[in-house]
Design brief:
Structural class: mainly alpha
Number of helices: 32
Largest sheet: 2 strands, antiparallel
Distance between the termini: 54 Å
C-alpha cells in the first residue's frame, strides 16, 4: 500500500509539471531561458546533496524524491521545446570559456528523453531497491548522473560539455560499482571508467584543436556556419585529426566496435542503472555528438568512418547478442548494436540518414528502457537471469509479457511499430549511399540487413522466455510494472501516430543535425526497396531463430575468435600496466632515504645548472652583507658544520634548529616579520616533532663508510654550488614590473595594506586554494593511516 501511495504521489507530480509546462506560452524560435535550463541542470545536483545529508532518514523514499525532481526537470525542459539559440554567462573570460547552454531540436529531444525516462527509472528503482542497502549512495549518484546528463545535452560550450561528459563517467563508475564488495562489480566499474574517460581525453584534444583552428569554444558559433568551420579546420590541417578525435571519443561512450566490450560488464549495475544510463541516456551521449557535429564534419570521410564503424558495430554486437546466455547481457549487446545503427545513420550524407538517426534515438530510448525494466522484473520475480532457465513467464506475468512483446517487436523492427519505421529509414539511407558511391559501398546495405537479421533473432530470444513450459515465478506488483507500462504506452502512441512524434520531437532534432526541413512517416509502409529489405530481414531472422542450432553455432564461433577479443586486449593492457607500475615503483621507491635526497636535490641542482648553461644567465655583482647579516650567516654556518659532525640524533636536531633560527633572524633583518614568525613556528614545531619521534627510532647507525661520505659530500657540494650561483644570478636580474603592480594595486584592488597577504588571498587566490587543498588531502591521508593502526600498536 505504501508503495502504491508513493506511485500515486509521483504521478500527480508528473502531471502537474507537464501540465504547468504546457500552460506556459511557447513561441517557435524564441530565445532560450538561461534560468529555466540552469534550474533543470542544477536541481538534480542540489537534490543529490540533500539526499547525501538526509538520506539516512529518507531511506528508499529518496527514489520518490528523485522521481519528483525528474518530473520538475521534464516540465522545465518542455518549456524550452520550441526555443532555439544560446544563452549563458562568462565562466573563464581569459580563455574564452562560457557557462552557456545551447537549445535546439536535438538537445530538446534528448532533454525530454533524459528527464522523462529518468522519472520512470526513479519510480522503478523505488520498488526495485526496496530491500537493498546503500540507498543514500545509490540515489545521490543517480541524481548526480541526471544533472550531468542534462548539462551535457544542453552544454553550449565545448569545455562545459567536456566537464559534464566526464561527470557522467564518474556517476556511471559509482553506480556500476554500487555492489563494490563483489569483485566483478568493482572490475566492471573500473573497465567502464577507463574506456569512457580515456575516450573523453581524445574528445578534449579534439575540442582544443577546434579552438585552435576557429578561435571559439561556442557550439552555436561553430555550427552556425558549418561550411566556414570546416574550411578553417582544413586550412589549419586539423580536419582529419578532429574527426578522428570525435569518432574515438564519442565511439568509446557509445560502445562502438572495438570499444564496445565495457558495456556488457556494466550490467553488474542494478537494473535501474542499466535502464537509465546504459540503454537510454549516457550511451546516447556519443551519438548525440555525432548528430551535433554532423553539419561541420559531413563528407566522404565522415560517411566512410561512421557508416563502416556503425554498421560493423550493429552486426558484431548483434551476433554477440544472439549468442548471449543472460537476459541483461543480451540487452547490453542489443544496445551496442542499435547505437551502431544510429551512428551509421548520422554518418550518411542524405536526408534519410539524419531522419533515421534522430527517429531511432527516440525509439530506442523508449523500447530499451522498458525492456531493461522488464528484464529486472523477470530476474527479481523468477530469481534468475539465465535465458536457458526462463520460459512460460506469461502465466505468472501476463501484463509483463505484453510489455515484453510490444517492446521486443519494436526492437526487432516489426511493422507497424515505430522501430520498424526508423529502421526503414536506415535501409533507405544505406541504399542511397550505395547508389551514389557504387562499388564497395554496396556492402553497406548488405551489412545493414545482416545486422538487422541478428537484431530480429535476439529480439525473438528475449520474447521467447514468456512462452513455452512455465517455470516458477512470482507475480509482480502493480507499482513495479507501472513505469515500464508507461514507456510501452509511449511506444504504442508513437507507433500509431508516428507523424505526431516526428512533428513534435523528432523533426526538430533532425533539422538541428543538418537538414532544416520536415519529413513524413506513415503507419502503413509503401512498397519500396527498403520494405523488401525489411521483409528479407524478418523472413531470414525467423528461419535462423527457429533453427536453434544457429544460436549454438554463434556461441562456438565467438569462442573460437576469442583471441581477437578487444576485451582480451584490455585485460592484457591492465596486466602489463600493473607489472610496469610495480617495476617503476621498485626503481623510484626503493625505501632508501639517501636515494630520495640524492635524486631530488641532485636532480633539481642538475636542472638548474642546465638552465644556466643553456640560457647563459649572467651572474650578479654580488650581495651586500652588513655586519649583522654576517654574524647571522656565521652562526648558521657553525650550526650546519656541527650538524655534520655530531653523533647523537638529538644533538643533530638541535644543530638543525640553529640553522632554522638564523634564517628567521635574517628575515627580521630583511624587514619581513611575517616570514620570520612563520619560520619560527615551523622550526619550533619541527623540533618538537623530531624530539617526539626520536625515542621511537632505532639507535643511530655505526660510522659511515668512506665511499658513502664521499657521495654525500659530492652531492651536497654540487647542490650548494648551484644554489649559490642561482642566488648570484637572481641578484643580477633587473626587477620586473609585476612587483610594482602588486604594490600599486594592493589597496585599491585587494583592499589591504599588507601586500603579502593581499597577494596570497586575492592576486594568487587560486594558488592558495590549491595549496590548501593539497594540505587538506595530506591531512586526510594521515588520518586514514592513523585510523588503520592496530589498537595494540
Amino acid at each position: 500500500m505504501r508503495s502504491f501511495s508513493g506511485t500515486a504521489l509521483f504521478v500527480a507530480t508528473l502531471l502537474f509539471a507537464v501540465n504547468g509546462a504546457a500552460a506556459l506560452p511557447q513561441q517557435s524560435g524564441a530565445t532560450p531561458s538561461f534560468q529555466a535550463v540552469s534550474v533543470a541542470v542544477l536541481l538534480p545536483f542540489l537534490a543529490a546533496g540533500f539526499v547525501l545529508v538526509s538520506g539516512s532518514r529518507l531511506g528508499n523514499r529518496s527514489g520518490l524524491l528523485g522521481a519528483a525532481v525528474s518530473a520538475v526537470c521534464l516540465g522545465l525542459v518542455l518549456t524550452q521545446r520550441t526555443a532555439s539559440g544560446a544563452a549563458g554567462v562568462r565562466w573563464v573570460p581569459s580563455l574564452g570559456v562560457e557557462m552557456s547552454f545551447f537549445v535546439d531540436g536535438l538537445s530538446s529531444m534528448l532533454g525530454i528523453l533524459v528527464s522523462g525516462i529518468g522519472s520512470m527509472v526513479f519510480l522503478y528503482a523505488y520498488r526495485y531497491m526496496e530491500h537493498e542497502s546503500g540507498h543514500t549512495r545509490f540515489y545521490s549518484s543517480l541524481l548526480m548522473f541526471l544533472g550531468s546528463m542534462l548539462g551535457l545535452v544542453y552544454a553550449g560550450d565545448l569545455i562545459l560539455l567536456f566537464v559534464f561528459w566526464e561527470l557522467t563517467s564518474v556517476a556511471s563508475f559509482l553506480l556500476i560499482g554500487h555492489s563494490w564488495r563483489h569483485g566483478s562489480s568493482g572490475r566492471a566499474a573500473r573497465k567502464s571508467f577507463v574506456v569512457t574517460v580515456g575516450g573523453g581525453l581524445f574528445l578534449l584534444v579534439g575540442f582544443l584543436m577546434l579552438f585552435s583552428a576557429t578561435g571559439t569554444f561556442s557550439i552555436a558559433e561553430l555550427i552556425s556556419d558549418p561550411g566556414a568551420t570546416a574550411s578553417q579546420l582544413r586550412s589549419a590541417g586539423l580536419f582529419v585529426p578532429v574527426l578522428a578525435s570525435l569518432v574515438v571519443g564519442a565511439g568509446a561512450k557509445s560502445a562502438q566496435v572495438p570499444l564496445h566490450f565495457w558495456l556488457p560488464d556494466a550490467m553488474e549495475a542494478p537494473t535501474p542503472v542499466s535502464a537509465f544510463l546504459h540503454s537510454a541516456t549516457m550511451v546516447n551521449a556519443g551519438v548525440l555528438l555525432f548528430g551535433r557535429f554532423r553539419p561541420v564534419m559531413s563528407g566522404e570521410l565522415w560517411t566512410a568512418a561512421l557508416a563502416t564503424i556503425g554498421l560493423t558495430t550493429m552486426t558484431v554486437a548483434g551476433l554477440l547478442g544472439v549468442a548471449s546466455s543472460d537476459i541483461k547481457e543480451l540487452l547490453a549487446y542489443s544496445t551496442a548494436s542499435h547505437l551502431g545503427l544510429i551512428a551509421a545513420a548520422f554518418g550518411f550524407s542524405g536526408a534519410a540518414g539524419v531522419e533515421a538517426g534522430a527517429f531511432h534515438v527516440f525509439n530506442h530510448a523508449l523500447f530499451k528502457a522498458s525492456l531493461f525494466m522488464v528484464a529486472g522484473i523477470v530476474a527479481h520475480e523468477a530469481g534468475t537471469r539465465r535465458l536457458s532457465d526462463l520460459s512460460g513467464l506469461r502465466r505468472s506475468m501476463p501484463v509483463v509479457s505484453v510489455l515484453a512483446v510490444v517492446g521486443g517487436l519494436s526492437m526487432a523492427g516489426v511493422p507497424p511499430l515505430a522501430g520498424f519505421q526508423s529502421k526503414e529509414l536506415l535501409f533507405k539511407a544505406s541504399l542511397s549511399a550505395a547508389q551514389s558511391a557504387g562499388g564497395a559501398a554496396w556492402f553497406l546495405p548488405v551489412l545493414a540487413v545482416t545486422g538487422s537479421v541478428f537484431t530480429f533473432v535476439y529480439s525473438m530470444r528475449f520474447i521467447s522466455v514468456f512462452f513455452g513450459e512455465p517455470v516458477e515465478a512470482h507475480r509482480p506488483s502493480t507499482s513495479f510494472v507501472l513505469p515500464a507500462s508507461i514507456l510501452v504506452v509511449a511506444i504504442a502512441a508513437s507507433s500509431l501516430a508516428p507523424q505526431t512524434a516526428v512533428d513534435l520531437v523528432v523533426g526538430p532534432a533532425a533539422a538541428a543535425a543538418g537538414l532544416a526541413h520536415g519529413f513524413h512517416v506513415h503507419l502503413i509502409p509503401s512498397v519500396s526497396a527498403p520494405l523488401g529489405m525489411s521483409a528479407v530481414t524478418i523472413l531470414t531472422g525467423s528461419l535462423v531463430f527457429l533453427r536453434g542450432r544457429a544460436v549454438r553455432r554463434s556461441r562456438g564461433l565467438i569462442d573460437s575468435a576469442s583471441f581477437m577479443s578487444p576485451d582480451l586486449g584490455y585485460r592484457r593492457f591492465v596486466e602489463n600496466s600493473e607489472e610496469l607500475s610495480r617495476r617503476f615503483d621498485s626503481v623510484v621507491q626503493p625505501g632508501n632515504a639517501a636515494f630520495y635526497f640524492w635524486t631530488v636535490a641532485g636532480g633539481t641542482a642538475a636542472a638548474g645548472l642546465a638552465g644556466f648553461l643553456v640560457g647563459g644567465a649572467p651572474l650578479g655583482a654580488g650581495v651586500d652583507v652588513g655586519a649583522a647579516s654576517a654574524i647571522v650567516l656565521g652562526v648558521a654556518l657553525v650550526g650546519a658544520y656541527k650538524l655534520t659532525r655530531v653523533s647523537g640524533q638529538a644533538a643533530g636536531v638541535l644543530a638543525l634548529s640553529v640553522v632554522g633560527g638564523m634564517i628567521a633572524v635574517f628575515y627580521v633583518l630583511a624587514d619581513a616579520p611575517d616570514l620570520a614568525l612563520t619560520q619560527l613556528s615551523v622550526e619550533t614545531l619541527s623540533m618538537v616533532i623530531f624530539m617526539l619521534v626520536l625515542d621511537r627510532l632505532p639507535e643511530a647507525s655505526s660510522q659511515l663508510s668512506d665511499s658513502k661520505k664521499a657521495v654525500d659530500a659530492a652531492v651536497s657540494g654540487f647542490v650548494g654550488v648551484v644554489a649559490s650561483a642561482a642566488v648570484l644570478v637572481a641578484s643580477g636580474v633587473s626587477p620586473k614590473g609585476i612587483s610594482g603592480f602588486f604594490v600599486e594595486n594592493a589597496v585599491p584592488e585587494g583592499g589591504g595594506g599588507n601586500i603579502v597577504n593581499v597577494i596570497l588571498v586575492d592576486f594568487r587566490a587560486f594558488d592558495t586554494l590549491g595549496e590548501i587543498t593539497v594540505i587538506g588531502m595530506a591531512a586526510a591521508s594521515v588520518l586514514v593511516l592513523l585510523s588503520q593502526r592496530r589498537p595494540d600498536r
